[in-house]
Amino acid sequence: MNLIERYVHAIGRRLPQKNRSDIEKEIRSALEDMLEDRSKKENRAIDEELTIQVLKEHGKPEKVAASYMPERYLVGPRLFPTFWMIVKIVFTVLTSLAIVGLVIRLVNAEPLPAEVGGIILNTFGEYFGGMMSAFGNIVLVFALIQYFVPDLKFEDKQDEEWNPRELPDVVEERDQFSLGGTIAETVFIVLGLALFNIYPEYIGIYGFTEAGRFFAPVLSEAFFRYMPWINLIWGLQIAMNAWLMQQMRWTEGTRWLLVAIKAGSIALALALLRGPSISALTPESLVTNMSFTADAADLFSNLVGQAIKVALWITVVMGVVDIAKTLVKIVRGQVSPVTAG
């Protein structure tokens, strides 16, 4: 294999498969023309030294390959304002949770003065770890959007010529969304993610009995086995909200993502219904932690279990309704342009 073929191969292996062959042919042809022109200009035969000279001028294979690749971002400039807004919301929420958690620990533990510093340092360590984890997850979500949705209006069209005739006759009400509601929903999702993943030990019932202060966990170990799936669904919801805030309207893409999220929520709710009880408020725990009588504990435990089942079935029904409504809007969105034409 001669130097030109080796050079073209070195470039080609760094290029995407779909257009590698065309680019290799283009580079090979350009190099052959450069060699022929240089040979005529210097009145010398094409040999290895002349080939090396031309290849050096053309550039290192990795640099040449990079020139054929689109500019890549982990979080592109078009998404960065939304990304930064979400980061500030998340960090504000985590900071608030850390402060509340520190206060609860100091009140519940009633530490000696010498122990206060250790509790503060421990809380700060959890806070810092939570921030790093949250920041990594946010970057991952936006990086996935950047990679899988390259047409998410990353290109700047502010200076592009536009035709007033292309303006819509009316603003489609079905495409509107609430910016404030979306931001609020995102904040509550982040609160939930932080609470369930960082401070699960605080999820319970606090109170006082004649025996003193008590704490009864609300969620069982069975619930936390589903946390990876809950994190995935909530992470997709944050991604969809970020996409909505980027587009400032509902689109077919965001609606299909909503369908996927609702389908995942339905599947998760059905799994929770069929699996072990996710309530930790068993009769035994109520008698032990909250000084319930046996009869009252049985009654209360059954009520909690039934309430959870009702809530999960409501999630299933509402998810089905939301999917149906969203699919209708998708169909109408595809039909309307044809009808309007």
Average per-residue pLDDT, rounded, comes to 80
Helix/strand/pairing class, anyone?
mainly alpha
Strand order of the largest sheet: 1-2
- Which percent bin holds the helix content? over 70%
> Low-confidence parts lasting 5 or more residues at pLDDT below 50?
153-159, 167-171, 337-341
Following the backbone from N to C, one meets helices and strands in this order, namely HHHHHHHEEHHHHH
What portion of residues belong to β-strands? under 5%
Largest sheet, strands/sense/barrel: 2 strands, antiparallel
| Tally of separate helices | 12
Q: How many discrete structural domains?
A: 2
Strand runs, count: 2
Shape, per Cα inertia axes: elongated
Rounded radius of gyration (Å) = 30 Å
In whole angstroms, the N-to-C terminal distance is 58 Å
Walkthrough of the structure:
α2 crosses α3, α6 crosses α9 and α7 packs antiparallel against α9. Strands 1-2 form a two-stranded antiparallel sheet. The chain folds into 2 domains: 65 residues, no CATH class; 247 residues, no CATH class. With 341 residues, the protein is mainly alpha-helical. The C terminus is likely disordered. The chain is elongated. The protein is 71% helix and 4% strand.
